[in-house]
Amino acid sequence: MLGAPALVLPELTKPFTLFFIDTFSGWVEVYPTKKETSTVAKKILEENFPRFGIPKVLGSDNGPAFVAQSPLGHDGHP
């Protein structure tokens, strides 16, 4: 396409990346992270649920961040 602006990607300096992809709209959210842990994944998910709502289905590549069990919160829920 002539005249289209070039896609500029940020320099990723963190070794891990968490992707959220809405399969209906195709919207992509990318979160570079320093660690690949359930705590990091949980924090990012908790930040996104108020913005986009709780998904009906959450898929993963079964990486360690999604296979590990996260400690329970103060109210006894994960």
Sum up the structure in keywords:
single chain; 78 residues; alpha+beta; two-stranded antiparallel sheet; 2 helices; 2 strands; globular; hydrolase activity; nucleotidyltransferase
Account of the 3D structure:
This protein has 78 residues and is α+β, with helices and mostly antiparallel strands. The chain has a domain at 16-54. 24% of the residues lie in helices and 15% in strands. The protein has two helices and two strands, in the order ββαα. The protein has helices at residues 38-52, 64-67, and strands spanning 16-21, 28-33. A two-stranded antiparallel ribbon has the order 1-2. The chain is globular and about 50 Å long. The mean pLDDT is 79. Keywords: Endonuclease, Hydrolase, Nuclease, Nucleotidyltransferase, RNA-directed DNA polymerase, Transferase. GO terms for molecular function: endonuclease activity; hydrolase activity; nucleic acid binding; RNA-directed DNA polymerase activity. This is Gm29423 protein. Residues 1-78 form the Integrase catalytic domain.
Strand order of the largest sheet: 1-2
Unreliable segments of 5+ consecutive residues: none
What Rg is obtained from the alpha carbons, in whole angstroms?
A: 15 Å
Tally of helical runs: 2
State the end-to-end CA separation: 47 Å
**From N to C, what is the helix and strand string?**
EEHH
Largest sheet: 2 strands, antiparallel
Shape: globular
Helicity range of the residues? 10-25%
Structural class based on helices, strands and sheet pairing: alpha+beta
Average of pLDDT: 79
Q: Classify the beta-strand content into a percent band.
A: 15-25%
Quantity of strands, as a count: 2
